[in-house]
Structure formats: structure tokens, C-alpha cells
Amino acid sequence: MKNKLPIVYPMLVLLLCIGTFNSFAQQGPAAYTGSNRIIIALEGPTSMYEFMSRQMIVRHNKATQKLECVIPVSTLIPLNDTIPADMAFEVLFGAKYPQLYLNIDAPLQIISSGNLTPETVKRIISIGLQGVNNESAIPVAFTTENNALYFSTNFEIMLDNFQASLPVKYLPYLTGRMQVSIDRARWVSRDMR
Length: 193
What we know:
About 15% of the residues lie in helices and about 45% in strands. The protein is an alpha+beta fold. A hairpin with a 4-residue loop joins β1 (about 35-45) and β2. The longest helix is centred in the N-terminal third of the chain and has 22 residues, at about 5-25.
């Protein structure tokens, strides 16, 4: 009996540590949901230069009650063959600022509403562009289905509002206005009902 007792104590300590680790792991931030699409259009004097990424990731931060969207700038591809492939990367200074950040107010009552028809409400969005954050009120349509929250929005920003600069080679082609379109991006929750 005395020989078995010392073996039991380390096993109990190990089980206690595993249980504690699992409870901490479950309390971490929500996981990102990937494969969301965003279209960014850079306005020119006579035409729009449109770029799309299908690699926007989204998660809901319960502490701040915001949807956090991250767009890798390098994944923005032109929607037209005549647009330079690296134009968006260069205009958004992707080498120095590799990600574009959007944080959209999304209170828990919207997320857990179970609303199957889109509800468009004005929300505050924080946009991180070229190292500068700026806030604006924009309309966002929210829909919940099963354990997913879908959202859509269209808005425009002026690069001047971010003290953002344009590369010299694009100055004749761009006005400094950028339009953003997100259509039915989704965040999947493991505990949404």
C-alpha cells in the first residue's frame, strides 16, 4: 500500500493541472471565422479600381462587444486585368502595414437575437489604416442563423482622414476616396443559440 501511494499523488497533480489548463483554454478569445469576402474600390477621376479578398477573418470579442475583422493586404487581388496587380498593396503600404483592421460595434443582444431577417442599424466602426485608427458611424445589416452571425455593410473613407499618403506613381490615377463593401460575412460561434 505504501508503494502505491507515492504514484497516486503525481497522477492526481497531473489530472488537476490538465483540468485547470482546459478551463483556461475555454476562456480565451473567440476563434476567428475565415473565408469572408471584402471588396475595396479605390476611386479614380474617371473609373474605380476594384480589389477583392476572400481571406478576411472575423471574430466577436465579448469584452469589447465588437466584431474584429482582419484583412491581409497582400490578399487583395484586382477584379480587372487592366489594374496593376500590386496597386492595392502599394497604396495601402502593405509592406509596412500588412493588415487592414475593422472593428464594428456588435452588442450581445444583436448577436443572440435570432433575427432571421436583416436588421440594419447604425454602428460605430473603427478602421485601422496605415497605422492610424479612425471611427465612423455606418449602417450595418445583421442576420443570425443557427450558430452564425452574418453582416453586410458598404461605406467609404477618405485617405486624408487617416493622414494616409498615396504613392507618387498613383497620384494622377486616384482621388484618395476608398469604398469598402462587405456582403454576408460571417462569424460562427460555438456557444451561440
